Amino acid sequence: MEASLEIEHESISTSDRWPVSSRKDNRWEKTDSSKNPAQSTIVKSQEDDKNDQDIKRVSSGIADLDPLIQGGFPEGKSCLVTGEAGLGKSIFCMQFVLRGLVDGEKAVYVAVDSKPAEIVEEAASMGWDLNQYVEKKQLLILDASPYFSARMVGSKEKEIDISKTVADLASYVKRVGASRVVIDPVGPLIASQNTTNGLRDRSRALIHALQENMGTTNLLTAYAINGARMGGHEAEEFPVNGVVVLKYARGESGLIRTLLLSKMRGTAIDLTEYQFDIVKEKGIVLSPIEPMTTPADEIPESSESLFSGSLFKEWQSDEVSVY
Fold first, then answer.
1. Is 0.85 surpassed by the pTM of this model?
2. What is the pLDDT of residue 197?
């Protein structure tokens, strides 16, 4: 039996396609395939390939990434960022949201594991002031962490009613007028006690409900533990339009972070892993990858975890530390 969830509280609402060869004006230049026969194979999604040029794009917020996906994520669709702890999934989400806010859009950020104050503080540590957009009512942060913390101490978990949860979320999206939504992470919302097929069905139901009820461009995150692609949530990648995989790898000079575009419907992408760094005020910055040995499968395993009641809890801005 699914738990019936209603939102009782809200957060404070105050306010082309080629491997990297070189950089110019903060954009990646194309590599001439005739001069580089060893370049990565370009793979094209079989779905929507006839309408590539008609797809409207939404900037990912990562300047180096947009040229690799024909200008950004498909508008009105859902994409997934997956990776182990510490790879920058939440920073990726912040950049996605910030890009829209700077352009005058509005956004909703659903915090599932972290507290809203922690998200605002992490952004501040990167040199980004999210609180100003909260005060301007451009950004609404919804806190779902109390609900899932309560579920952990329960003896028996009930599956979340996805239709009702998305309907509740959609009411906030429509009231704010948001065009971008982040769910960080999405795993707990689709958790199932059934088999992988049950998880896949719930994942599909969630993605379809988001698209049908909100019309927003959505960025979801999921954990991958010790190199496992979805860390127990492998089904999440099936219904989304795009998947960005963040990984640790071993380079000649030590451990590095890499980014791989493993899926992007209606978009010509290459299967090259790009090294990236996390830089203050810039966020995720791609660079040509250095020679690698093997993926860092031996890295010590990180442990990430996933009441009936309200999914969201009110967050007050005075919880934020001043930097």
1. no
2. 72
